[in-house]
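Recall from the previous chapter that SMILES is a line notation for molecules. Here it describes flavin mononucleotide.
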Amino acid sequence: MSSTILVGYATKYGSTQEVAEAIAVALREGGLQVDLQPMRVVSTLEGYRAVVLGAPLYMFRWHKDAKNFLSRHRQAMTQRPVAVFALGPTEDKPKDWQEVRSQLDKELANFPWLEPIAVEVFGGKFDPAALTFPYNLVPGLKKMPVQDLRDWTAIRAWANSLVAKLQPESSPW
Ligand SMILES: Cc1cc2nc3c(=O)[nH]c(=O)nc-3n(C[C@H](O)[C@H](O)[C@H](O)COP(=O)(O)O)c2cc1C
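With both inputs in hand, we obtain:
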């Protein structure tokens, strides 16, 4: 099997892509071989021995690319270590973090065969000026302040914790 790890992401406004890029950098610094791709362009997992999958939550749902990816690659995903992350809260309140984690858990429960080696939620980025249709028509959203809750130290720490878990199996020979 290949020695490459796929870091696959879905994004609407780019913030999850930037997190996926930071994770890919940290994994590479940890000595791992990494391929970073938008998950919708990945047609096969044959070239990968492990997968890190990240997507934002929108309207209480995980990005559809992530759910499509899991459905499409079900068999291959059961044969490889998989780590999952989501971007979500744009308000730093304990209640919001808990709610977002349960949103993600609920989404993952639709894929009971998936047994991730790690699941993490990171804060999201919200910029009302960047909203596109149909969200730019929602007055409440346009009035919300710019927020970026991505904690780059926590993101790197999570990626570093994956470096140990994703080491190729060492052979005594
Ligand atoms: C219209 C809209 C709906 C959102 N809904 C949720 C949600 O239900 N749960 C959540 O945790 N975050 C929600 N978010 C926050 C996004 O997950 C966050 O902004 C994320 O960083 C976006 O990722 P992207 O830039 O990769 O698209 C929402 C954001 C927008 C603009």
